[in-house]
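We now fix the convention by which a protein and its fold are recorded. The integers have meaning only within a learned vocabulary of local backbone shapes. A complete example follows; check for yourself that the lines match position by position.
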Amino acid sequence: MSRSRIIRLSNVVTEDDLESDEGYEDILNDLRDNGERFGKLVNVVINLKPPGVGKVFMEYEDLDAASTARLALNGIPLGLDNFIVAEYYPENMYAQGYLNA
């Protein structure tokens, strides 16, 4: 996939994490704080609809920030057997609200 300003993160958020509004807001704020380390973050979206519940989409202002975030986040361990998967996501699909791919 070619570079994009949108990064999709998998294996970061589970359905259980999203059970309460407070938990959702806490996770969203943590993701924003962490995402801003790599550049100007325009938006963070957590997919709440199946399939793909819990996938995180980070929209950056420019390609360089998105590339830096993808490289830094991909492969970070979460627990004993879970790793963050960070990949580019097509901007046109994101703009149309298609988050289930």
Q: What stands out?
A: DSSP finds three helices and four strands in the chain. The longest helix spans residues 21-35. Helices lie at 21-35, 63-73, 91-95. The mean pLDDT is 94.
